[in-house]
Write a structure and sequence with these properties.
single chain, alpha+beta, Alpha-Beta Plaits, four-stranded antiparallel beta sheet, 14% strand
Amino acid sequence: MTDTATSGELLLEIGAEEIPAGYLNPALKALQSSLTQSLREHNLEFGEITTGATPRRLTISVRNLAARQPDRVEEAMGPPKKAAFDADGNPTKAAQGFAATKGVAVADLQVVSTPKGEYLQARVELPGRDSAEILSDLLPGLITGLPFPKSMRWGNGKTHFARPLRWLLAVYRDQPLNFRLEEVAAANQTCGHRFLAPQTLRATTYESYRDQLRRAQVLVDPVERHQALVAEINRAAEEAGGRILPDPELEETVTNLVESPFAICGSFAERFLQLPQEVLITSMREHQKYFAVVDQQGKLLPRFVAVNNTRVKDARVGAQGHQRVLRARLEDAFFFFSEDQQRPLSQLAGRLDGIIFQHQLGTMADKTTRLEQLAGRLADEFAPELGATVRRAATLCKADLLTSMVDEFPSLQGIIGRDYARRQGESQEVAEALYSHYLPLRAGGVLPQDQAGAILGIADRLDTLAGCFGIGLKVTGAADPFGLRRQAVGLIHLLLGHGLKLPLTTWIDSALALYDCQLKEEPAAARQRLLEFIKGRFANDLTGRGIPPEAVEAVLSVEFKEINDAKARIEALVAVREQPAFTLLAGSFKRVNNIIKDNPDDRIDPELLEEAGEKELAAVLARITAATDPLLQQGAYQEALEHILTIKEPIDRFFDQVMVMAEDEALKRNRLALLTAIAKLFRRVGDFSKMYALQK
C-alpha cells in the first residue's frame, strides 16, 4: 500500500477550445487507461482515480500517488568467467569493459552459475526517481498521444490535439509540474465559464477544483452535469404543459455540449405536426440537438426544449432565436415530405436500378428481385399464410431509399417506408415489415415483433452475406466495410428470437444460386466460408453472454447446421455439466475417442460379444439408444443426456474387464464398433471430451 505520508495528489486538467461532444468520453477513457499504465510501468503506487470533462477541459485526478519510485537493484549478466579472467586470474578487457558499462568496480562483480556455465554478474543499485520529475517527462506525450477521430494543429506549432490548447493545470503535491506544450506551460490555474465567470482560479486538489468551478458556473463532473441537465429540461417542458420525450442518447450528447445547462422552451407552427412524428423528432435532435415535448398521452406537442451553455436574460428572445433556426429545418422537411407524396413507393421501387448495392453484385433493383424470391420461399416454408405479405414487402422494402426524406435523413430509412406505406394504402402488415426487417439495428437491439418483418430481415441478411462471400470478400481485423459481422449477428438473433429452425446450408445455397454468374468463388467454397463465419459470430455471441466456452466448443466442433438446435444442445450440456456423473463420463468419452480414433464402423455383431462387460455395455447402449432416439429427434437434449449419463458405470466395467485391442481381429473390430457406436450417440449432442479438458 502507498504510504500517504510520502504521497500526494496529481491533478491534471487539459484546457482547450470546445472539444466535440462525441470526443469527450472516449478521450477520458484513453486518458485514464494511458496514465494508469504509465504509472504502473514506472512502478509508482497510487490510489483512487477520478475523471471529469466539459467541452473546454479534460481532467484527471490521482490520489495517494507515491512521491518517488522505490529503490531497486538490477542484476545484469556479463561475459562468461573463462572470458573474463586470464590464466593468472587477472580481469580481461571483457570484464573491465562490463564493469565500466555498469558503473561498478571489477572487484564488485560476482560469479554466478547458470545452465550454460559460470558468468559474471553485476548488481547495480538504482535509486528511485521523484514522481514530479517522472510526471513532467511523461505527461506531455500522454496528452499529445490521446486518440481523436480528427486532430488539428494551430499557430506555428507541431502539436496535434482535438482543438487548440489554451491552458494546462498540472500540479502534484500542491506544486506545479515543470513542462510545457508549445507556448502553454503547466501551472496551477484553471478557467471558469467562458461567459458567466471567465476569471482564472487556482486549484491543487480535485475537490477544491470541482467546488471552485461549480461556483464559476462549470459542472466538471459529467454525472452531476447530466443530473442538472435532466432537471433543467424537465422544468422547461413542464412549464410548457408537457413532458420530455425520453432520449438518453441525446441527453448524453447535450451533457457534453455545455459546461452548465440552461434550458429554454420554444414552439413551432402546428401545421408541421402533419409531418411523420419521426421526421419532426429527427429534425430537432440530429441537426439542432433539441428535445421533443409530448403530452401525458405521449402525443407530440408543437414545442421543443433547447439547452444553452449560458443563461439568457430574456427567455422569450432566446426562444425566438431557436425557433427561427428550427423553422428553416422544418420548412425543408415539409417540402421534402410534400414532394415525396407525389411519388408512391410502388413507383419508386421501379427506379432502384439507379442505386448500386455493391459494384460487383449489381443494383438495389437486383437485390429487390432476389429478396422477392428468397423471402417468398422462406415464407412458403415457415409461414405460408404470410406469403403475399412478405412478397409485397420485399418489393417495396428498399423503395424509400429514393425518397427526398431519407436522402436528407438517412437514419429514417425503414421508418419513412413504413409511414409512407400506411399513407399510400398498403396493409398494416406490409408497412410494418418495411421498418422491422432492418431490426435489430445492433447486437442486443430490439427484434421485429412481426414474423413477416423477421422473415424479410433474414432474407435480406442472407442475400448480403451470400453475395459478399460469393465474390470473395473477407472480414479481417477491423476491416469490415459492408458490416458483415453485424449482418451475421442480426441473422443469428432473428433466427433465435423467432425460433425459426432454418437449415443454414440449404438456405445459403439458395441465396448463392440467386446470384447466377456474378459470383467469383465456387458456391461450395463460399458456402463453407460463410458457415464458418456465422459459426464464429454465434460462438462469440454466446460466450459474450456468459455461456461457458467449453460447452459452445463441445457442440459446434461436432455439428453446425441449425442455430436453434445448436443452442438447445449447448444449453443441455450446461444444464448437466455440474453433475458428478457428467464429469466422469466426459473423461470416459475422451478415453473412447483416443481408442477409436477415426474408426467409422459402428456395426456390432452380437455373436462376437464374449465378455460379460461388453455384453452389458451393448445391452445398455441398445436401451439408451431406444430411449434417446425420439428425444433427440424432438430436441429434448437435456432429457436425452439424463439417459446417456447412466452409461458411465457400464463403460468403466467394460474397460476394467475387456481388452479392446484383442489379437483376434474380429473381436477387436467388434469392440471398436461398440465404442464407435457409443461415441456417435454422444456426438448427437456434442463432443464431451471438450468439456473434460476444463472439468479436470
